[in-house]
Amino acid sequence: MDQLKSHLFGSSAPPSWLASLQTFAESIYTNPLNLLLLLTVIYVVLPLVRPSSPESSRWTPTLAEARSHLAAPSDRYTYLPPNHPDTVEWTKYTPRTLAVFDGTGDDQDGSRILLAINRKVFDVTKGKNFYGPGGPYGNFAGRDASRGMAKQSFDLDMLTPLDKPIDKLEDLTASEVKNMKEWEGHFTGKYGIVGELIDESEV
C-alpha cells in the first residue's frame, strides 16, 4: 500500500479520502466481522439506490392490461370495471323536491331513494330493502330523517310536514345530537352524498 501511494503521489501527502480508505481497509483486514457487516449493508442499501427496470417502475398498467385478468401480475391492478361509474350532479333539494325520491316511481329517477340527515342528502338506493317502500326505515325515504335518527325513532311524527320549514333541531339534547352525528357518519361512509337540503326560501 505504501509503495502504491508513493508511486501515485510521490513525496506529496495523499488526499484525505485515501487515508480514510486505507484505515477502512485495515479495519476489515484486522477484523473479519467488519467485512460481514459491510456485505450486509450493501445487501440492504443496494436495492434502494439501484435504478429500477422500466418494467418494474411502471406502476399504472395500460388499458388492455387492466382489463385482462391474466396479463396483470398479482401485485398490480387485476380488475377494471367495463364502464365508468355513473356521474352524479350535486343538487340542492327542498323538502318537496326531495320527497319525489321515495323509491315508489317507475322511471329511473323515481326508483331512486334519497334521504337527508343534518342537511346532507344521501342516495340510499342500494339499501332499498331497508329504506324503500315496505322497508323498516321506509318512512325516511325522500324525507329529512335528522330528528328520527337523533331520537332513534322511526315513527311518522319524527317527520316535518313538507309545507313547513326544515326542522332546526334546536330542542335536541346533546345525546340526541350525538346520535344524529353518528348516523350521519355512518351514512357518509356507506352511501354517496348527492346534494344538500335547503328551505324553499333559499331557492
UniProtKB/TrEMBL annotation:
Q: Name one GO molecular function term.
A: metal ion binding
Provide one Gene Ontology cellular component. endoplasmic reticulum
Domain of life of the organism in this record? Eukaryota
Alphabetized, the UniProt keywords read:
Endoplasmic reticulum, Heme, Iron, Metal-binding
**Per the database record, which ranges form the Cytochrome b5 heme-binding domain?**
93-198
Cell compartments where the protein resides: Endoplasmic reticulum
- Residue ranges that the Swiss-Prot or TrEMBL entry lists as coiled coil: none
InterPro entries from the entry?
Cyt_B5-like_heme/steroid-bd, Cyt_B5-like_heme/steroid_sf, MAPR/NEUFC/NENF-like
Q: State the similarity comment.
A: Belongs to the cytochrome b5 family. MAPR subfamily.
Protein name in the entry: Related to Membrane steroid binding protein
According to its UniProt entry, this protein's organism is Sporisorium reilianum (strain SRZ2) (Maize head smut fungus)
